[in-house]
Structures are given as C-alpha cells and as structure tokens.
Amino acid sequence: VQEPEEKKIALELLETEQAYVNRLHLLDQVFYTELMKEAKAGKTVPEEVVKMIFSNISSIYQFHAEFFLPELRKRMEDWNCNPRIGDVIQKLAPFLKMYGEYVKNFDKAVELITAWSEKSPPFQELIADIQKRKVCANLTLQHHMLEPVQRIPRYELLLKDYVRKLPPESPDRGDAEKALEMIFMVSKHSNAAIAEMERLQNLWVVYQRLGLEDDIVDPSNELIKEGPIQKVSTRNNSTSEKYLFLFNNMLLYCVPKVIQVGAEFQVHLRMDVDGMKVRELDDTQFPHTFLVSGKQRTLELQARSGEEMNAWIK
Q1: Distances, alpha carbon 80 to alpha carbons 74, 75, 168, 172, 177, in Å
Q2: Among 63, 146, 65, residue whose Cα is nearest residue 97
Q3: Does 3.50.50.60 match the CATH number of domain 5-210?
Q4: Which residue of 102, 130, 182, 266 is 20 to 30 Å from 26, comparing CA positions?
C-alpha cells in the first residue's frame, strides 16, 4: 500500500530532525565541550571566546534533543491511530525565537574562529583534530555551525508541503495551518535578524574603506547611496574626481586616495543631512550638475548622466 503523501513528509521531518539533533550534539557536546575544557585549562584561548563562538547552541541542542525530537517520534509511532504533527510543531514555534540570537552571532563566530586559529595554534590544532573524526564527515566546524541557521527555513518548507498534501478532511488541518503561520512569523523574525546583521556588516566595510574614526561608527547609520562624482570649480572652469557616501544622517564628501594603504578614501567634508538643500542647476557648460548646500558650505557637483543626477537628488 502506498503511504499517504502527508505521512511521507512527516517522516522526512522526523528523519531530518534526528540528523539535525546529531549535528547539534556534535556542536554542543563535542566541539563546545572539548574547546571549553581546553580553554579552562588555559591551553588554547580565553573561555569568553569559546562562549562567544558558540552563542546559545546548548539551549538549542537541549530543546531539540529533549523535547522536540522525542515528541515528534512519539507522534510518528502513533500515526496510524492518530495522524497529526501540527500540535507538536505549534509547541515548537515559540522556542525557535532562540535562533535569533544564534543567527545574529553567526558571522562574528566565524570571524572569531578564524582570528583565534591564527593567534593560537593549539586552538587550531584541537579544531583540526575534532574535524578529522568520522562524526564530522570531512566537514569544517564552520560548515556544521551553519546548520542551525538553515534549519528554520527547512521547517517552513516541509510544513508548507505537508499542509498542501493534507486531505481537506484531515483532523490535523487546523493545527497544521496554525503551526505554519507560527513558523512563518518566527522565520520572518530570524530573517530580520539576518538582514540587520548584513546591514551592520556592510556598514562596517564602508567605515573601513573610509578609514573612519569611531565617532562615525554608529550602528543606526544607514548607507543610502555611494559613487563617484565630479566637483565643478567655477573659478578655474574645471572638474575634479570626488566620491560621495550618502548616509541617512550625513553626506561624506571624499577624495579617492592615490596610494591605497588602508583606507580607499579621505573624508574632506561631512555635511549633515539635517537642513541640507539640493537643487538641479541649469549649466550649459557642465550638464547634469546639481547644488548641495549645507550649513557649512555649498558644493556644485556633476553627475555622469541625467539619470545619475536624478538618483542623487532623490
């Protein structure tokens, strides 16, 4: 007899959950535990570093190993007399908020592994030693650490599929739909955390290109547009190559550095967006020019095209 489609998906959920718990066990009980033991013995890196790398992986592991996996297994054992998983997944959803913290920390964790592997050969050796074990399946610690980041989208896909394949009269329909809705909300929450992390990452890269001091490094800044621009000098009728970074709160007027050591640009002027005025100029000699005037000074700038000028003005 052909198994019903929805049961196949529920079984796939159970199988992938078992594999996932094994992966979490490896991260928490093997990598984290052993690295922590060596750190405590003062042989590798500070304990704080190990904690920062693994974030809240222990809570995630415990939750899946001790609660979600056993409940799911029980559901599949009783499937023939009680075919449902929606209720268990509803219980799972609120706990998935734990992932926000892990996901937000992920990039930093990978950076820490790289940085401390260079600084501390014993740390690198211990990781390499664990990676050689059969349980690691020739994959790196970083690779295993990606698994929790990818798990919530996986639940979402499996559950969507499950709801699609459920017969209309299935006793699990109401619960499964509600569970999907809940997972969807959590996944949005986790994606927002990822997007925020990427935004900060990009911001940081821009600050490095500018060689900026800490006073500007404000995480609430948002880069809106950047690009080359010509500065028109009416005095000697010429233009010179400059570069603009427009943030939500300031415009940085920069000069590209000829010798690029460290930063790519030198900031010549910071103009507050607050109180700034922008208008198009009708200059026959220099087309596509616009005027940016701030409290301190006014710049006459020339874009490469009308479109580019409009994009800047906008």
Answers
A1: 12, 10, 18, 13, 21
A2: 63
A3: no
A4: 182
Tokens in use for 311?
């994009």
Query: For residues 179 and 161, is the Cβ–Cβ distance under 8 A?
Result: no
Question: Rounded to an integer, what is the distance from CA 282 to the centroid of its chain?
Answer: 44
Domain ranges of the chain: 5-210, 223-313
Secondary structure letter of residue 2 according to DSSP: P
Query: How many whole angstroms separate alpha carbon 98 and alpha carbon 75?
Result: 24
Burial (CB count <10 Å: 0-12, 13-18, 19+), residue 168: exposed
CATH architecture classification, 223-313: Roll (2.30)
Contacts of 158 (CB under 8 A, 6+ apart): 9, 12, 13, 16
Tokens of 100: 């926000």
At a CB cut-off of 8 Å and minimum separation 6, what does 103 contact?
148, 149, 190, 193, 194, 197
Which one-letter amino acid corresponds to residue 58? S
Query: What is the chain's pLDDT, residue by residue, as a tens digit (314 residues)?
Result: 788 999 999 999 999 999 999 999 999 999 999 999 999 999 899 999 999 999 999 999 999 999 999 999 999 999 999 999 999 999 999 898 899 889 889 989 999 999 999 999 999 999 999 999 999 999 999 999 999 999 998 999 999 999 999 998 999 999 999 999 999 988 887 778 778 777 877 887 888 788 776 556 677 788 899 999 999 988 888 899 999 999 999 999 999 887 766 778 888 899 999 999 999 998 888 999 999 999 878 999 999 999 999 999 99
Q: Which residues pair with 219 in a beta bridge?
A: none
Spatial contact of 183 and 89, defined as CB atoms under 8 Å apart: yes
